[in-house]
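Folding Task

Wanted — backbone structure
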Amino acid sequence: MLTALSREEVKRTAGLNEAIYVRQSKDKKDSLSIKGQIDLCRHECSHPESALIYKDKGFSGKNTQRPGFQSMIKDVKEGKISKIIVYRLDRLSRSIIDFGQLWNELEKNQVEFVSVNEKFDTTTPMGRAMIYIIMVFAQLERETIGERVTDNYYTRIRQGNWPGGPAPYGMINVKKKSENGSTVPSLDYTDEFEVVKEIFYRYALEDTSLGMIANSLAERGIPCKKRAAWDNVALSRILHSPVYVRADQEIYYYYKSRGVERFSNAQEDFDGTCSAHVVGKRTGNIRKYTELQNHVVSLTNFPGRIPSDIWLACQHKLEQNRQIGNAGKGKHTWLTGLLKCGECGYSLTVRRWKDKKYLYCSGRGNLHICSKKSFDQRPEEIEYEVQKGLEEILDECNREYIRGPEGEKEKQRRRELQEINEKISRLLGLMAESSEISMKYINQELEALDARKTEIKEVYKTPDSDRKQNYQRIIFEQLGFEEKKLTAQAFIEKIKVYDDSIEITWKV
């Protein structure tokens, strides 16, 4: 019967050896020779005659790219070494970080470590404690280096320089002369910027979606550099980025309204000459361009080319369409925003072609993650099934709570309320794109609309002379398009559509 062997047993049975590592940068009168280091290390070996010897002569300890060292690490990973012995710790490495990485590799492979001079012996508790102390200092060094890199990064940003890394789409990394004559990193535009320009100007149009732009670019064979194909993610990254915009006062107020408190430049410097850059730490699922708390906005050292009004129009549109799906503005069905694909779960839209309506999955068209090409069911058929369910629910309602036909004055008030809500919605959307002067006007308009809204609601509390006091059953079929939509949204959470069935999740 075969039994599993422990790692220690495998080492013994396979004749694994202790290893001696020695290094000498160059011959010095006061330096210990390669032979001298080997002789001293043999005294720590259990079997000196069989010890493996790894040596590097004429190599510095500043890095680990040494042939003898790399050969030893290779044998460690292959499980050929049980213990490593060195004359002194700095023979392995002069970098605490490099030693920390080596120690992690030794621990992973259960390799013991002994330093003759420092008396580090990981077979003893004190030896292991000293190793852990070294690791603490290694972590401190790594964090110090990280902070220094971050500080340099933000310094470059505040100076208007490109901080480094790949250039955005339509741009290229270049060097330019600063005011003091030094050479600093920057960006310049390429011919691909025409694609960027097209993306901004097309998306700013009211009837253009990200999916439509992505399909257009794909059909023309225009490659997407950072992703396999053009999709919502690739386009959103371009549209969100302020490196293309002419950063003027409107851009300053936009970021101010989004919660940004730190600007590297004075407000008056935002004159539309340069573009802008947003930097900041992100944690968890916080998005770079949508969650701007603790971020810094800085002007760049290269010009912007997208007008601020076009860029802001795109931001407003992106905010409205942050999540895939409709917000209830569809014209082809009163089920807009409720229909979901049974395969991928993403929203279904209704499109008209040759006087017929068809269902279209946004998960396939926009994200290319759904294999569902078409649906056998038509929107009209789904509406019929949903209507039957809604009528059953309405029939169960107590008739005394069902409002009958409205009087003319009441209808007028209801229409006015709807108009006021639409105006308020539009004004709230404009707030993020407005200057200080226009913000004052918008606030005044909002206050007036809110006051009128309160006044109308107070009138609703008093009975109307022309209101009919008898109550009767609501006939769903007789409701208008918007009323059907509101009724469906009030009672339905979502509707999953499959090939031959639908699954309605009710709120009641």
Summary: Residues 325-402+473-508 form one domain. The radius of gyration is 35 Å.
